[in-house]
Amino acid sequence: MNTRSQRVPNDMLITEMEKIVALLNEDTIKVNEIKKLVINISKNLEKIKSKIEKEKKKSKILEKLKPKYDEIIKKSQNFKDWDEKRELLRYAIIMAIYCRINDLKTNQIRKVLDLANRTHLKLRRNKNENIESDLAKMCYILAYTAGRNQAVEPLANVLDIMLQNADNKSFNKLYDFIQAVVAYHKFFGGGE
Q1: C-beta atoms surrounding 179 within 10 Å
Q2: CA nearest 106: which of 20, 192, 13, 17?
Q3: What's the pLDDT tens digit per position in 17-34?
Q4: Which residues form a coiled coil (predicted)?
Q5: Where are the alpha helices (DSSP H) in 27-131?
């Protein structure tokens, strides 16, 4: 039985995601406009009581963003070549939207964030420090976390590819990407 709070029109949510995708295609990303749309989509999804119905709507919404996500997956192997402003920032925003709509909580990836911070500090102290074990550890912690919580999987897929291609020289770019995803996730209303 549908309650009034469950009646969230599919086409409205999809239209809002289409607006987000259009904004992501512009040369200048209008994050405040995107923020309003992401928060509205999230609030409307929260109103849905049925878990099955909520997942169906979430899936249809994310389907609109999937080509952007697929682009990140495809290009994440060469993240070292990403332009800081154009690609790194844009891809971080896309991942943050994906994570936010998927209900990812920052504490679900806290261990990876902590290890990334420690690795970043280690490299600041000594640029020649061997970080291969840290990168490997981040990979398996992400895999474990994604196995426990499906909301982590899209981010884990991207970061896993990046971690496997990272080295001392490129780690700062990877670290900046992770920090940007977390920052925009929070900006878009994502929780701890």
Answers
A1: 15
A2: 192
A3: 899 999 988 888 899 999
A4: 38-65
A5: 31-46, 51-75, 89-101, 110-125
Q: Count of CB atoms within 10 A of residue 164's CB? A: 12
Query: Distance between CA atoms of 124 and 115, rounded to whole angstroms?
Result: 14
Tokens of 187: 């900006």
Q: Are 106 and 192 in contact (CB under 8 A)?
A: yes
Look at residues 183, 181, 147, 149 and name the one whose alpha carbon lies nearest to residue 72. 181
pLDDT beyond 50 at 1: no
Give the mean pLDDT of 57-65: 90
Q: How far apart are CA 75 and CA 56, in angstroms?
A: 28
124 alpha-carbon distance from chain centroid: 26
pLDDT digits over 89-132, tens only?
999 999 999 999 988 888 888 888 888 999 999 888 988 888 99
List the domain boundaries for the chain: 4-187
The pTM of this model reads 0.88
Angle at 33 between CA 30 and CA 36, to 5 degrees: 145
